[in-house]
């Protein structure tokens, strides 16, 4: 088998979490697709604290494929951190992150390379449709993109995930970014550079089930928004001003009414509603401030993005 050069033409990065069933299916398509490109390549896989036999399957694949490198993290750090680990350890002149479930077709990398050779430094892979998703999930995605575009200075390309090609200079720029709260789609868009795109048809998940549920997706969306926008902090100044204005107008109206018609019996319901409404606004405001403060806390601690238990290079075992 061909040995991987120190600086291959292409690095493919694949974060894996409980993807043991998908590993053999993935490499059965990935390696032939990469060999057909006529370039030198490496495949960097990251075992993100899997609880199944993902690591064992990857190491089995490495015995027959010397261009496969396996990074075993000490625990589950999440996809964004695992992807960052792959970017840090990639060596290729071009880098392509992709998922392990074959929803990202390896054959599409050939089209990305064409755009890259034509001068593009970032090549987006835009899905033509969301395969295997419920209507509620599709509507949630559309809503998230709309909110992100209107509240953030960074515009996310529509229907584009982590599947893309990046030039070495782009990856080096991302690796120099010190932030620990990482929303990779936003980071990929923020760095800029010359862009191009291809369109691909998203496949069905080869095996297993998705690791995201509604709560995780909602938290992921909120993390993305707060990573690239301080609008959730600023908006409460306007909310407070609006509530204060309405309260002042209400006070004036009550004073005029009292002077004209006298004092009436105060309403218990109106007082209760006012207290509950203002209390809810205050708690919501504190929660959002707490989220931003937590991000500052994480940055100040300066802990590493991830911890590698072992890096399995070909031929070292």
From TrEMBL:
Record Pfam families: Glycos_transf_2
Residue ranges annotated for the Glycosyltransferase 2-like domain, each copy included: 11-172
InterPro entries xrefs: Glyco_trans_2-like, Glycosyltransferase_2, Nucleotide-diphossugar_trans
Localization of this protein: Cell membrane
Entries under PANTHER family matching the protein: PROPHAGE BACTOPRENOL GLUCOSYL TRANSFERASE HOMOLOG, UNDECAPRENYL-PHOSPHATE 4-DEOXY-4-FORMAMIDO-L-ARABINOSE TRANSFERASE-RELATED
CC per GO annotation: plasma membrane
Single annotated GO MF: glycosyltransferase activity
Family, as annotated: Belongs to the glycosyltransferase 2 family. GtrB subfamily.
Keywords: Cell membrane, Glycosyltransferase, Membrane, Transferase, Transmembrane, Transmembrane helix
Protein name: Glycosyl transferase family 2
Source species: Paramagnetospirillum marisnigri
Main location: membrane
Domain of life per record: Bacteria
Transmembrane regions: 235-256, 268-289
């Amino acid at each position: 088998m061909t040995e991987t050069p120190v600086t291959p033409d292409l690095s493919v990065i694949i974060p894996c979490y409980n993807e043991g069933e998908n590993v053999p299916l993935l490499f059965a398509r990935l390696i032939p697709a990469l060999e057909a490109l006529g370039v030198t390549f490496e495949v960097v896989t990251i075992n993100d604290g899997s609880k199944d036999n993902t690591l064992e399957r990857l190491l089995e694949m490495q015995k027959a494929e010397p261009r496969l490198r396996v990074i075993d993290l000490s625990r589950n750090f999440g996809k964004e951190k695992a992807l960052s680990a792959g970017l840090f350890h990639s060596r290729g002149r071009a880098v392509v992150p992709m998922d392990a479930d074959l929803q990202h077709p390896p054959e599409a990398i050939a089209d990305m390379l064409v755009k890259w050779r034509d001068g593009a430094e970032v090549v987006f892979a835009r899905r033509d449709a969301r395969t295997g998703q419920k209507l509620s999930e599709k509507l949630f995605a559309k809503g998230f993109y709309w909110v992100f575009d209107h509240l953030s200075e960074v515009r996310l390309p529509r229907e584009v995930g982590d599947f893309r090609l990046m030039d070495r200079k782009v990856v080096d720029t991302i690796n120099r970014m010190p932030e620990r709260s990482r929303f990779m789609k936003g980071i990929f868009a923020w760095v800029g550079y010359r862009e191009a795109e291809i369109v691909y048809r998203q496949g069905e998940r080869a095996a297993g089930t998705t690791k995201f549920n509604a709560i995780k997706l909602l938290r992921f969306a909120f993390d993305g928004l707060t990573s690239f926008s301080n609008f959730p902090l600023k908006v409460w100044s306007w909310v407070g001003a609006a509530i204060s204005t309405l309260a002042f107008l209400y006070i004036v109206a009550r004073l005029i009414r009292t002077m004209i018609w006298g004092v009436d019996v105060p309403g218990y319901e109106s007082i209760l509603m006012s207290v509950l409404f203002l209390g809810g606004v205050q708690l919501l405001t504190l929660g959002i401030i707490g989220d931003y403060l937590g991000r500052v806390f994480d940055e100040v601690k300066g802990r590493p993005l991830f911890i590698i238990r072992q890096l399995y290079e070909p031929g070292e075992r």
